Amino acid sequence: MKFTVVIPTRNRPDQLAQALASVFVQNFDDFETVVVDDGSDPAYRSAYDAITQQYGTRLRLFHLPQVRRGHGPAYARNFAISQSAADYICFLDDDDEWVDPDFLARVARVVDSAPQTVDLHLSDQVAYKGNARLDRVIWTEGLRQGVRNLPGLAGGAFEVRVPQLMQCDGFCHLNTTVVRRAFFLRIGGFDENIRYESDRDFYLRAIDAAAFITYSPVVTARHNVPVRENRANVSTAISQYGCYIFQLRLLDKAILFSRHGEVCEYAKRHKVYTLKHIAENLWQSGDYQTALYYAQHVLFTGFNVRWLLFYFWLWVRLMAGRVGRDPPQVARNLYYPPSV
User: Fold this and answer.
1) Which residues does residue 214 pair with via DSSP β-bridges, in sequence order?
2) End-to-end Cα spacing for the chain
3) Are strands 97-98 and 120-129 parallel, antiparallel or unpaired?
4) Would residue 43 be called left, alpha or beta, if left means φ above 0 and alpha means ψ between -120 and 50 degrees?
């Protein structure tokens, strides 16, 4: 088997059906699809089973035991890959879709004709918020300009390396990432302790360890930006401070363990961004004492005059006794909002 397409899902059979429809129009037959239902409510069981029957043996559906908030997408994807024996693994979120029917055929041409074993293949996607396309650069779209003068590979792809990838502010979304299964297992798969941005953690570890990475400057997927009010989505079910904690974890891992200096510098830079966001959110919520703590860390890791002034302003406010620490503002619902 050339490819296994991995799709985690939970309580969203209708959206899963649309995602699967975009997979099974591929102009390539040597693939299977593994869907992992991460403990959906019993009311959705029959809808999921009906989808399985529609696609027959080319789709395998696994139901994980139901636990509160699910096992998480990292666990679900690792489980799916443990059930696969394909050479390469592809990913798709159950609320997104592939938009290129030649996606798998193109990747097959690239990996079969490349001068070295391809560990990772990357491509582009577009993002929509409702029906409006977002035109700003989000992931690795900037690579298109960078590979323009490089020698091409079969299938219209290019070899890319860590320095080029780290010039992009974003990272390649899982919808457009293809990874060699043996390489995936060698680097330990997804970190199941990270429930938000486990894909970014995987991306940083994967590009840091990969021997040969290819990139196709082609839009292959559509990402539907989650709506914050929709708690059915993993990225919206976690509180803002919970997201920050997971981001700090994955960035600290990259700082500590990356072999490439470019990955380490990327992680240091983005850790400063995360610390700034935490400090600003705490300030806006009125928790000056904790905001001061995180502003201090910003100064230690990424000094600038603006943040020095911000730090002293917070210190003056705190010393003046006008506002103290309000524990409920921060401590409550650290990871999850009360409705989840």
Assistant:
1) 121, 159
2) 39
3) unpaired
4) alpha
Query: What is the set of domains in the chain, with CATH numbers?
Result: 3-237 (3.90.550.10), 241-331 (no CATH)
Write out residues in the chain with pLDDT < 50, as ranges.
Answer: 323-334, 338-340
Q: Pairing mode, if any, of strands 213-224 and 3-9?
A: unpaired
Predicted TM-score of the model (pTM): 0.90
55: left (phi over 0), alpha (psi -120 to 50) or beta: alpha
- Exposed / middle / buried, residue 261 (Cβ in 10 Å: 0-12, 13-18, 19+): exposed
CA-to-CA dists, residue 274 to 61, 147, 242, 270, angstroms: 37, 30, 12, 6
Q: List, for residues 88-117, the tens digit of each pLDDT value.
A: 999 999 999 999 999 999 999 999 999 999
* Among 83, 233, 215, 217, residue whose Cα is nearest residue 158: 215
Which is nearest to 59 in space by CA: 98, 4, 1, 100?
A: 4
DSSP assignment string, 256-271: HH-SSHHHHHHHHHHH
pLDDT digits (tens, 9 = 90+) for 20-44: 999 999 999 999 999 999 999 999 9
| Amino acid, res. 340 | V
The Cβ of residue 136 has, within 10 Å, a number of other Cβ atoms equal to 6
Tokens describing residue 264: 């380490």
Tokens linked to 151: 């020698």
Reference 283, options 306, 308, 315, 237; nearest CA is 315
Give whole-number Cα distances, 255 to 204, 222, 232, 234, 265, in Å: 10, 31, 32, 25, 7
| H/E stretch holding 7 | strand 3-9
CA dihedral of residues 317, 323, 327, 328 (deg, nearest 10): -130
Give the position of tokens 């059979």.
13
Q: 226: which DSSP letter?
A: P
Residues 6+ apart with CB under 8 A from 308: 299
HSE-CB of 17 using CA atoms within 13 angstroms:
12
Q: Which residues of 163-192 are buried (b: 16+ CB within 10 A; e: fewer)?
A: ebbbebeebbbbbbbbbbbebbeeeebbbb
